[in-house]
Amino acid sequence: MPESYEEINYAIRPAKNIERKMLCDVLRKLSAFGMVESYRYIGFGSTYFSDFSLFHRALGIKKMISIEKDKTHSKRFEFNRPYNSISMQFGHSNEILPTLRWNSKTIVWLDYDGKLDKTVLTDVKFVCSNATAGSVVIVTVNAHPGDFRRESRLIRLKLRVGEEKVPADIEEDDLARWGTAAISRRIITNEISETLDQRNGMLEEHDQILYRQLFYFQYADGAKMLTVGGLLYERNQKPIVEGCGFESLPFVHTDLRPEAKPCQIEVPNLTYREIRHLNSQLPRERRKRLHVPKAPYSDLKKYERVYRYFPTFAEAEL
Amino acid sequence: MLTKDIGLTRSIIDLLDNCVDGARQLRKKGNYDGLWVRLEASKETFKISDNCGGISVGITRDYAFRFGRPSEMEPTTHSIGQFGVGMKRALFKLGKMFRIESTTETSHFVVEVDVDKWKQEKEWEFEFNELQEKLPRKPSRQLGTMITVESLHPGISERFEHDSFQTGLLREIQEAHAHAMQQGLALTLDGIPIKYRPFHLLQSDQLKPGYKESSFGKGRSRVKVKLFAGIAAPNPAEAGWYIFCNGRLIIGADQTEIGGWGEGGEGTIPKYHNTFARFRGYVFFDADDASQLPWNTTKTGVDADSRYFRAVRLEMLTLMRPVIDFLRKLAEEKKAQDRNPLETAINAAKERELSKVKTHYVFKAPKAIPRVKGTGRISYYKLLDDIAKAKKALHVTTQREVGEKTFDYFFKRECE
């Protein structure tokens, strides 16, 4: 069976492309914690390394680690690294993460293709146990509800993550449509807080590590996907966190309540000609209405929400 | 009487803990050369004597012979006998007549108790049978304590007669007080010196155990933690986590959830299995104030709910995972190939004591040779003479190469 990187050209997925750029804008605001370029970035680059390219160019991050499961084609991955400061680590992330040094601020993007399962939660646990304050942890998982014609989605979820991780109040119907994404976020957030709780057991109150959610995206380039994540910081660093000004970006999502509505990244169905026409009307003046002949208005609004991040006609992943 | 809740061996070790505490008080720098503890256990008598400084009259009168330890008492720095109840409970468990004689620099006392008679008294008081205080210091006076128990309870005296009891007790003492013995304390049981088995890990240039230090609390409440994770000889009875509080082993060879086995529904760490028979993890908690340590009152286990222990446990998980991954690869290597670099690396490593072993921030080991996807194994038997001839003809030295090259030879001519 081909690996995911052999099937999908990651560079073309528009919603993913938008999400990546939005993440980048948020990460830029970490400068209050220290120069962003001094951060380390850990991700799953595959052969495209789109996130690595973007973060290096836009944020100046040099120390980068790409974790790759496929050991047998290691030379191909090494060849495809866009910049030489990217170091490849071959093996499963569960195995690699505990072997890294965790004494510097890190942005970790656990960008999985598959659904939430025990290995994802293990990675979350290892990162949250070890990452230093000022670090950012981001998790992306496939949140497509399983085929309803097969046996219970709830049972399959319990098998995947372990029964004790599924909150007791979840019912079968909760997993339909975007419900799986919401519940996956809840389970991931629970893992983060429980791990921090244990870790804080040996820390003085002002040194205790807290989690501020910054990202809660849902999107679907094909399958429904969920991205959730945020900042780990020491209690006494609260003023610094406020000083970052994350909330000035409209897609930053800090509401931790399970019922909070996510930031949906929707890619409108517009032609490039229509997009160029729209761009000339943006940023929209107040009271003026966007106008493109015969295009559905809902698509115009969708475009407006993401226009600065939308992949443009001339843009190609080089 | 609170005697039901601890085992016989535990009781004896509780008495031993007091001697070690005495040693610690006497030799604050930690060198116990010249200090000894002698244990004797026979059908009629149990005796424990030491030269570790003796128990003062004040402590005996005001604290040692009351149940529990009154809170006004000065905490002993870095002690392990902190719970006070240990001595009385142990003596009551052993027999009906006991005698304690103790000599310090300035005092000497004897307490003799006949339990049956004492029970009939209304007040739970004890009396000194002999008492001398404010003695002039004499360098020749032997400082120490001798506790003798007679009229042993029937169940106890029977057990003392069994070899298996002696062996079991010996092992527990060796484990519990390895640290004190390493520092020079000489223990004997029925005249036989107890050898301590130092804890160790395999180490070489290519193979190093993982090591981490951390601490929590401040000032007098500060607790230092040292963690080691690595491998040793494959021995299921000895594999697992060893947890020490102030040098005293509390849990040995732990293979349960306490040590993280099975964590995350086995997603983070698998349940213990004999694949991991080489695993050794050591955690040392050290504190001046023993009440900060994460142990339970009987010193038989860790207080798993302690917030300190739960935090340290996360560090244990991170340190142990690379060792687990290595052991899995080792097991696969055995099954799959005749090249075994991992096994070779292990055989080249030497056992080193924890105080001397070279460590790395994470367990370091050679990487396994990756199985090339889509390959299979062919194996067969041929006459050794024929194999030797083939080696010569092919200019190779190993049997594996003979197999590979003869296959390639055939394949090129008949299949490509």
Number of helical segments with 4 or more residues of chain B: 11
Main sheet specs of chain A: 8 strands, mixed
β-strand number of chain A: 8
Order of helices and strands of chain B: HEEHHEEHEEHHHEEEEEEEEHHEHH
Q: What characteristic shape of chain A results from the CA principal axes?
A: globular
Distance between termini of chain B? 87 Å
The largest inter-chain interface, given as chain pair and residues per side, is: A-B, 29 and 30 residues
SS content category of chain B: alpha+beta
Overall strand count of chain B: 15
Total helices of chain A: the number is 11
Going across the major beta sheet of chain B, what is the strand order?
5-4-3-6-2-1-7-8
Proportion in β-strands of chain A: 15-25%
Radius of gyration of chain A: 20 Å
What oligomeric assembly is this protein in?
heterodimer
Please tell me about this protein's structure.
- The complex is a heterodimer of chains A (318) and B (416).
- Chain A has helices at 4-7, 14-28, 50-59, 74-80, 93-96, 118-130, 153-161, 179-200, 238-244, 272-279, 297-306; strands at residues 40-43, 63-68, 86-90, 106-115, 136-142, 209-220, 224-234, 263-265.
- With 318 residues, chain A is α/β, with parallel strands linked by helices.
- Chain A has an 8-stranded mixed beta sheet with strand order 3-2-1-4-5-7-6-8, with helices on both faces.
- Chain A starts with a helix and ends in a 12-residue tail after the last helix.
- In chain A, α2 (14-28) packs parallel to α3 (50-59).
- The radius of gyration of chain A is 20 Å and the shape is globular.
- Chain A has 11 helices and 8 strands.
- In chain A, β2, α4 and β3 form a beta-alpha-beta unit.
- Chain B is an alpha+beta fold.
- Helix content of chain B is 32%, strand content 22%.
- Chain B is built from 11 helices and 15 strands.
- Chain B has an 8-stranded mixed beta sheet. A 5-stranded mixed beta sheet of chain B has the order 10-11-14-12-13. Chain B has a two-stranded antiparallel ribbon with strand order 9-15.
- In chain B, α1 (8-26) crosses α3 and α10 (384-394) crosses α11 (399-414).
- Chain B is elongated, with a radius of gyration of 28 Å.
- Chain B starts with 7 loop residues before the first helix and ends with a helix.
- The chains are: A alpha/beta (318), B alpha+beta (416).
- Chains A and B meet through α6 and α8 of A and α8 of B.
